[in-house]
């Protein structure tokens, strides 16, 4: 999820799985390769997002384990705006550590088949909604500094943001990773959110039609 500046990281219970190592040097794995493939082929919506994509790719080129939270310099995360286009609304989660309404999301895990699968897994886990439909391509990128791995441990989240479509009759269930879940109209997002979420919802809503 989007957690800029002094905010804490995504839920601490996420897996710390990482690629296999040989002589102490991490090796790229399938999830790393998929993330590079997705970002390399992504049609960025503007020049700022294109530059950010290039920064993500540079990070992944420098760190074969840059998709996992074990990389202290920074790591990729996956998040998703859960959209109900029929009702014109988005489901946001009230983050327990930062007290803001954000999209669902979290760290990648070694068992994730792909970057998109990680985004869908996080959305399903945090919303409790079955039958979510992931739009295939990322919507936006959002890079931010976070406290991740401890109260004084700073890192960078290279968040890849997707959109998922919820069934029109979906009823969310609050998980342990959230204080609350609530639907908000596209044009009436809560004050206690941030501009990154607003941009994501605007673009996700447009893509959802």
TrEMBL record:
<dbReference type="GO" id="GO:0016787">
    <property type="term" value="F:hydrolase activity"/>
</dbReference>
<feature type="region of interest" description="Disordered">
    <location>
        <begin position="1"/>
        <end position="29"/>
    </location>
</feature>
<feature type="domain" description="Nudix hydrolase">
    <location>
        <begin position="73"/>
        <end position="206"/>
    </location>
</feature>
<dbReference type="Pfam" id="PF00293">
    <property type="entry name" value="NUDIX"/>
</dbReference>
<dbReference type="InterPro" id="IPR000086">
    <property type="entry name" value="NUDIX_hydrolase_dom"/>
</dbReference>
<protein>
    <submittedName>
        <fullName>NUDIX hydrolase</fullName>
    </submittedName>
</protein>
<keyword id="KW-0378">Hydrolase</keyword>
<dbReference type="InterPro" id="IPR015797">
    <property type="entry name" value="NUDIX_hydrolase-like_dom_sf"/>
</dbReference>
